[in-house]
Design a protein that fits this description.
It contains 22 helices and four strands. The protein has 541 residues and is mainly α. The protein has a single domain, classed as MetI-like (MetI-like fold). The strands form two sheets. It has a two-stranded antiparallel ribbon with strand order 1-2. The longest helix has 37 residues. It is globular and about 65 Å long.
């Protein structure tokens, strides 16, 4: 990453399959860096939003906008800044690629944590109050463990979804010059540019091997470990197993490290417990002063946010509208409406297909463990590898791209619905399932009373992230290239993609602004009320 680099130069990249293991390692390292940053961001962001309702009114709409802003939009703004921070070095370009992967992972994970934090069962909160747990201990002893199983499912989904945008993150355009960083994504981009079906096949085989490896070495152990946090009254005898987790638990050196780590955590726990009690006492002794400081801090924050919003809004307005006409703006708004229709229609179709399948898989532990790797493989498999076949099919049969390119918008993001529904069904307390058998609940009544209320919070999270992913995927789904062939479907995604290809930053910003406005309106009218309804109606009390 610290190697000398000049933008006008080209990094060595070959379609020789012998290089694929090295390229795969490069991509995996970028994704692991991005995953670490995403986890840290998710815990900080979701905790603030869940603990402060007023902050949530600002943070959740912002999060919804961020997950819908296309990666190309982030890259257009950030890559120049990263390169300026590290001139003459490859470090800036690598940071831009890692940040792009981060944007494809972090938002979904933050949504999952937020949804879990606000739906902690009432009786568990009452127990925490009864035992007089401090905010610190309540957070680490109750809220984080409760959120862990569903969060890990979303981590898997986020990592899998990151593969969909790995091509965009490793093929970066700066000053009309494309930088191909060594990796599987840039390998696929080069193969598509040279129309090499054989290279695409090698990339597919490599990705399958990589996905199966990190499923066995990382995600299956984590899921088996997280099973102890499942909130239920009746324990199941058949719990998930992992040979890696068993090996870790039996390793002598790791047992020593575990004792050391638990000792450190105990010291930190005691320290923060005393700190929390001290802060509570100070607040009680200086209640009036604390309230005054809190109000000053709150209104100061509001003023700062308002100033930042006004400043950057005015900058964006003068930058965009001084270089384009209002007729262009009206046209982009109309294109956004077309993309909105595609998002709504195909999210509804995906829900009808994957909700029943996800419940079926999640309720059967053995089947879920067998199907997990295959579902993850489907989710991680870049759907844009199928795009060339779609292009050839449309051209050969002289079909309308506006219709036949539309299903591509949901190919990558539909898995958010499936993964979240599987996670929600798997987290459904086993005693609920036993009760449905005792009372002979079957068919629609069982779905209405048990399954739908149990999975609804997870489904809403999946639907929100799927919709955001669909907006993001519109950039590559409405503007498809294979060699010298380019097909466009009228929509906001193709508008932004075409502007990116031509290097027109004014149109890029205009497209991103209109997209953000659409998402903000949908958030206020639909997603935010749904989150409130879920928190009030479907908490496992």
């Amino acid at each position: 990453m610290a190697a000398p680099f000049i933008i006008s130069e080209s990094l060595p990249l070959s379609l020789d399959p012998q290089n694929l293991p090295y390229y795969a390692l490069q991509t995996i390292l970028r994704m692991l860096f991005a995953l670490f940053l995403s986890i840290v961001f998710s815990f900080i962001y979701a905790t603030i939003a869940a603990k402060n309702r007023k902050a949530a009114r600002i943070l959740i709409p912002i999060l919804d906008i961020l997950q819908s802003v296309p990666i190309l939009g982030f890259l257009a703004v950030t890559v120049t800044g990263f390169i300026a921070l590290f001139p003459g070095s490859l470090f800036g370009v690598e940071c831009a690629a890692i940040f792009a992967i981060f944007t494809s992972q972090a938002w979904n994970m933050a949504f999952s944590l937020y949804q879990s934090f606000i739906t902690v069962p009432k009786e568990l909160n009452e127990v925490a109050t009864l035992y007089r747990l401090s905010p610190w201990r309540r957070y680490w002893r109750l809220e984080v463990p409760y959120a862990t199983p569903q969060f890990l499912w979303n981590v898997m989904m986020s990592v899998s979804g990151g593969w969909f945008f790995v091509v965009a993150s490793e093929a970066i355009t700066v000053s009309n010059h494309t930088i191909l960083l060594p990796g599987i994504g840039s390998y696929i981009a080069l193969a598509a540019q040279e129309e090499s079906v054989t290279a695409i096949f090698y990339a597919i085989v490599t990705m399958i091997i990589v996905i199966l490896l990190y499923d066995q070495l990382l995600f299956k152990p984590l899921l088996a470990w997280s099973y102890k946090f499942k909130a239920e009254l009746v324990a199941q005898e058949d719990t998930p197993k992992s040979w890696v987790l068993t090996m870790i638990r039996k390793a002598f050196i790791l047992q020593i490290l575990k004792v050391f780590w638990l000792t450190v955590l105990g010291i930190l726990d005691t320290f923060f417990q005393k700190l929390s009690l001290l802060s509570v006492k100070i607040k009680e002794d200086n209640a009036t002063f604390s309230q005054m400081i809190g109000k000053i801090t709150k209104y100061s924050l509001y003023l700062i946010l308002l100033f930042v919003f006004i400043f950057y809004s005015s900058q964006a307005y003068f930058y965009v509208f001084s270089r384009t006409s209002f007729e262009e703006v009206y046209y982009v708004v109309f294109l956004g409406f077309l993309t909105l229709l595609r998002v709504i229609i195909f999210c509804a179709i995906a829900s009808l297909i994957w909700v029943p399948i996800g419940v079926f898989i999640g309720l059967r532990e053995k089947f879920a463990r067998r199907a997990q790797a295959w579902v993850q493989l489907l989710a991680a498999f870049p759907a844009n590898l199928f795009f060339p076949l779609v292009v050839l099919f449309i051209v050969k049969n002289d079909l309308n791209p506006n219709f036949w390119l539309s299903p591509l918008i949901i190919l990558g993001s539909q898995w958010y619905i499936l993964f979240n529904v599987i996670g929600g069904a798997a987290d459904l307390p086993f005693d609920f399932q036993e009760l449905s058998k005792v009372f002979y609940l079957k068919g629609w009544i069982q779905w209405k009373r048990i399954f739908l209320p149990g999975i609804f919070p997870a489904y809403i999270t999946g639907l929100v992230t799927a919709a955001g992913g669909a907006w993001n995927a519109s950039i590559v789904a409405e503007y498809v290239t294979w060699g010298n062939i380019t097909l466009e479907a009228k929509g906001l995604g193709s508008y932004i993609a075409a502007a990116t290809a031509s290097g027109d930053h004014t149109k890029i910003f205009l497209g991103v602004i209109v997209l953000s406005v659409y998402v903000l309106i949908i958030n206020r009218l639909l997603w935010y009320p749904l989150y409130r309804y879920v928190a009030a109606r479907y908490s496992l009390d």
